[in-house]
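> Could you send the Mannan endo-1,4-beta-mannosidase prediction when you get a chance?

Sure thing. Input:
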Amino acid sequence: MKVYLILLALFLALAGNSQKNAPIDAKATKETKALYDNLRKLSKQHTLFGHQHATEYGHGWSGDENRSDVKSVVGSHPAVIGVDFSGFTGGTPESRQRAKNDVRKTVINTYNRGGVTTVAWHFPNPLSKGGFNWVDSVSVPAVKYLIPGGKSNALYKEILGGIAEFAKSAKVADGKLVPMLFRPYHEFDGGWFWWGKPHCTKEEFLSLWRFTVSYLRDSLDVHNFIYTFSPDNRFLSEEQYLDRYPGDEWVDMVGVDNYGDMGRDKYDLETAAKKLKIVSDYAAKAGKLAAFTETGLETIPNPTWWTETLLKVMKAHKMQLAYVLVWRNDIRSPTHFYAPFPGQVSAPDFKKFYDDPYTLFENDLKGIYKKKKFLGIF
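Output:
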């Protein structure tokens, strides 16, 4: 009897742990569940490197087939490619359809090469001018109107319907849906976006997040999203980090966007590492994935930023980070870029970053959408 009780307790503990380390969508596609599981396993010893809009355009070019600035430097695309749903609302019907077609192509191509897609949503304010930024003279605090009970909830349902339609259209040749790390309402703790902390109450933000997940997952049957929560870096404790956290049942991955401590405002590597550790520790405790969802140093004037800043921060503590993503390289701007290109001053150091066994790029990934005991990597 005693042995039976011990075995039962062990089984229940393992079952509970299994429920934790799984997507919040019980109906998630097989490939989405496999991606979640493999990211969790890989993060024990590695971190995937990501770059926003990496294959869509880069420093001085756009639309070239199978090109990225990262690949031009090290011979491999980033493991994680960032795209954006920003063009899915506003504009004309033609421009919206064009945006969906372009993003769909990028998402499918990334999957077919074996890479991972993460989705930002710079959502233009649906109730006022000003775009996704908060502009004092024109912006409307839209959150309270979009949530259930708000006068524009029906409009928001329509917008989410467009997101769902896209998610279900991202199919590869064999009919499988492409999994995506969906990261809505990022950097909500600042005031620069219309969904930011000064423009809605805590309860309104939590309602917006929960309704977004519930409506996509439960009402519109979107089952290829992994939901990612990512404030900016305005916290120094777990309590502060979780101030607007919607709850474990509404989040798959926890992250942080941090440019300020990484050289933009100052070099405070100790504080940056502390914040990352808070995120990683919470993920481990709650059975979630963790990530460094945005970072970088514009123009990368520091020739050893990759190994002496970024790598040092990520290796400062025992952390499990699924990926790190740096921001985009603009087509025309001579200064707005966050990844090196051939001849850029940090390119030699980036090669060292690439060669470090801790970092994984697209060429390193094998079967990330298949569930298996051992994930093969070079």
